[in-house]
Design a protein that fits this description.
CATH architecture: 3-Layer(aba) Sandwich
Shape: globular
Largest sheet: 6 strands, parallel
Distance between the termini: 17 Å
């Protein structure tokens, strides 16, 4: 049986869900938080130690200012309201990406990381202002003085240092691409593309994916 230490998710479809149900992309983002909460509880129940959520990519800065501001405000409100509970449940928060947000949000993200840094039940990696190509460039810039560079060196220079590569990567929203997410780390990850939009993704959908993964023969180049 294949064990899962790390699950990564591209939470696609919030905007489309909002337009379909409420005629508002922003309300879709708010509804998507309920699915985030469900996945967090699922990971704790299944003893999955790492959960990486693609929350805002380096390309998402192209979105309208009003939508970006809503997303950042939503994150800020969520952390202010839920951080004590998150810490009480021994959940660790780590930010993957550069904190180029407002002074207030940057300070809150730093505080959330510091407050939860010793927690061990579940580590949530929030990929914010994250792009895998940018991450790899970041790693190489750290290593540019080395005459020889190994895979080990790169692994230890990425944002995901000390985080195991994901066994499972899920993308909701009926789109089949990685969108600049964990390109290095996902070399041997089992990828599951889900037709449902993120707010419609449920516990039973996770169970189906986990069952399929558990029955997958993982060769890693062998036969």
């Amino acid at each position: 049986m294949n064990l899962v230490k790390h699950m990564a998710i591209i939470m696609d479809g919030n905007g489309r869900w909002g337009l379909k149900h409420k005629n508002s992309r922003n309300l879709g983002h708010r509804e998507g938080l309920k699915t985030v909460e469900m996945v967090m509880r699922y990971c704790i129940k299944k003893k999955i130690k790492f959960l990486t959520l693609y929350a805002f990519s380096t390309e998402n800065w192209k979105r309208p200012l009003k939508e970006r501001n809503y997303l950042f405000n939503l994150l800020e409100i969520y952390l202010k309201e839920k951080l004590e509970r998150i810490n009480h449940e021994r959940i660790k928060i780590k930010i993957l990406g550069e904190k180029n947000f407002s002074k207030g949000l940057n300070k809150l993200l730093d505080f959330a990381e510091k407050k939860t840094m010793k927690n061990t039940k579940l580590q949530i990696n929030l990929a914010l202002n994250y792009g895998s190509k940018k991450e790899i460039v970041y790693a190489f810039n750290k290593l540019k003085k080395k005459s020889r560079i190994s895979e080990y060196d790169i692994n230890n220079s990425l944002y995901t240092k000390n985080i195991p590569d994901p066994e499972i990567l899920i993308r909701t929203g009926n789109t089949q691409r990685l969108s600049n997410f964990l390109l290095w780390q996902a070399a041997y990850t089992e990828i599951f593309f889900e037709k449902k939009l993120w707010p419609d993704f449920k516990n039973e959908d996770l169970n189906k994916i986990m069952k399929k993964f558990s029955n997958t023969k993982r060769n890693f180049g062998n036969v």
